[in-house]
User: Fold this.
Amino acid sequence: MSKQTLQVLPHNFTIHSLDSDQAVPAAVMSAEIFFIAKTSEELSIVCPSDLKFDSFATEPHWRALEVIGPLGFSLTGIMANISGVLAAANVSIFSISTYDTDYILVKEAQLPDAIKALKKDGYLFV
Assistant:
């Protein structure tokens, strides 16, 4: 499989955990970029760190690598390959997929190591 092209998004992200019955804060809905997941047990929101609101728990200082898409649903192994490269470099990830593409969040302090490992494995960055 050929390597995908990635780009580093300019935002610093925070991952929030809220109670499953809590409403999504209005400020989130007006953000340029955000991700929301809800289960019967929790509501998770990933958004730019400059948005401040009460949440059960927060995990700040994440940066996002976007796989330049759109990616077809018939493509396989994209996240497995990228996460494997990063795991071998001891870089922890938080992954998000949308209809068109994938995002790999890494801790800001590990971003240089992530980029170095991915470039060494043949991934391109724009």
